Amino acid sequence: MSIFSKLSFKDKTFKLREQAVLDATTTLLASKGFDLMTMDDVAGEVGISKPSLYKHFKSKEDLATEVMIQLLDDALTYLDGQEPTLTSRERLENLLEWALRKRLEGGLPFLPSGSPHVREILTKSLRYLTRAYKLHKQLGQIVDSAKEAGELRTDLPTDVILFSYYSRTCDPAVDYMQLYGHYSADAIVRHMLTITFEGIAGSARS
Amino acid sequence: MSIFSKLSFKDKTFKLREQAVLDATTTLLASKGFDLMTMDDVAGEVGISKPSLYKHFKSKEDLATEVMIQLLDDALTYLDGQEPTLTSRERLENLLEWALRKRLEGGLPFLPSGSPHVREILTKSLRYLTRAYKLHKQLGQIVDSAKEAGELRTDLPTDVILFSYYSRTCDPAVDYMQLYGHYSADAIVRHMLTITFEGIAGSARS
DNA sequence: GTCTATATGGGGATAGAC
DNA sequence: GTCTATCCCCATATAGAC
Q: Which of A53, A86, B60, B142 is 20–30 Å from A61 (CA)?
């Protein structure tokens, strides 16, 4: 018997609505960005009034933070559920593919780092930072394993590899491929993986 | 005798002030982003009043657009001034290094593409688009030459390589290396070039 | 052309009725 | 808890005096 089933009907609908708000916010953040997204947009998208929105989330910043926290939780869950038989490099490739496909379906990249504003907001949330740190630590271990296995360059510091890896999830190249290049989701994912791991020169030079 | 010297003293100071406005805007755009930058910020930074600002630029969008146009002009000038003895790959490396160093000194990345808002503004400016297209076309030729010379992968479409290349100039990884990794400008440039051309796996795998 | 002072509008947040 | 109606700040943009 789950905790959820203990809730009254009213509480259930409240929770469901809350998730609808989070989903709508995710879509809006992905399309318009934080600064251009208005609380009216969110309320309108969900079909509720603005004051109702504020019963769930005390501010716009709070709402956006919750969305990002949920995203990091999803990423951590994905990492946790990966087959233990995978190599470290495969684990990194799979997670990146997961993030890119999510984004191509209208979702958010973790780290909407492009925006200094959003970054500032997120760094004020301890709950967000805890998860970001946890993810960073786990990925750091995977990168180190990959280095030992000869699957990643050893002449790049681990944190540099990680910063670059995160950045690929919010790479504007994805938008351009989709918007101007009309590439399929599969093609975009394939190209992004090549670019991330092998670079634009890659084997051509060796 | 330059055109400039024909201007009256008043016109000269007007032009000089205009450049000061553009410089201040560049710095502010780089640090705060378009949405958070206010016209009061710009006026205050330059030491003039807001109405004076509007004598130079008819709107905030116009101001930002001019800054971006100037940046593209600088890039085109840099490309034009490159030694003809350089290989195509070297030309790409040098331009990327030029852009990264400019950014590390507080300048703007061409394409502040992170922001959907700015992208929308820029696509409304014919003068901007003309320059962007010119740069895109020139770089496309260089990439094709590099492919023929075996300096770049041939299994990636040229436009994909270009989209990825542009994205490196505004890569958040640069911010993270600077902010959290405390890497020197030289180290950041070196790592970014490696990541761009050789990827994070690169030769480790071959 | 430069300023002080102000108009205008949008959007985050809330009061108060039901 | 939900809504309608409203507050109010802030930032873009301008009016009008000098």
A: B60
